[in-house]
Amino acid sequence: MPARLTPRTTRRLTTALSAGGGLALGALVVVGRPLVGVAAYALGMLAAVALQYRSDAVLYDERDTAISRRAAALTLRTYGYASAVVFPALTVAWALGYFDWPAWSVALALGVAAVYLTYGGLRVAVAARS
Amino acid sequence: MRNSLRERRERAGLSQRALAEHVGVTRQTINAVERDRYDPSAELVFALAAFFECDAAALFDPDVELDATVSDLT
Q1: A51: Cβ contacts below 8 Å, ≥ 6 apart
Q2: Are B26 and A62 in contact (CB < 8 Å)?
Q3: Which residues of chain B make contact with A58, given a CB cutoff of 8 A?
Q4: How many CB atoms lie within 10 A of CB B25?
Q5: Rounded to two decimals, what is the model's pTM?
Q6: Which residues are B3's β-sheet partners?
Q7: Half-sphere exposure (Cβ direction) of A96: Cα atoms closer than 13 Å
Q8: Domains parsed from chain B with CATH numbers
Q9: Where are the domains of chain A?
Q10: pLDDT tens across B58-71, in order?
Q11: Closest residue of A to B25, CA-based?
């Protein structure tokens, strides 16, 4: 059946299955069924992979790579600009006693830091190989 | 990058999908190149030129402006 799907339909189905799996995981964890959520997620991802594997058409090409690269760069830039303003401002507010770091904001700050540390490390590694 | 891809494709009686299959990309990429919304890689430029049996420069106009060329240096 997948062989009869157009490349665009296959791509859309793949995206829908992946996103659906992720959403199902989140929703089922929230309602207290984490194992069912993981099963739904795995099912969605497996179906997406199988759909791509069985397709004869070119589903992704250099333009998709370029788009992903651009989106990744914009994401990093957005977080970078936001972090450059937000976290120092919150630190000043905290130092002056106007702000307490809730757990989620600490996790967010550490998460952003981890992303940039990873990016920096990989940038050095990739540059060394180029 | 301006190009004559659409003219050459239509002259050959090919759809975007057919051309895409011949050079190993998606129809959306051919459409984006024709509409000058995506600059193809050198690999794709040469694949298209080989397919249409012409020079890459005949298919694509890079519109490069340089202060000097190698001839000016020798």
Answers
A1: A2, A10, A13, A14, A17
A2: no
A3: 20-21, 24-26
A4: 24
A5: 0.78
A6: B60
A7: 7
A8: 2-73 (1.10.260.40)
A9: 2-54, 62-129
A10: 999 877 788 888 88
A11: A61
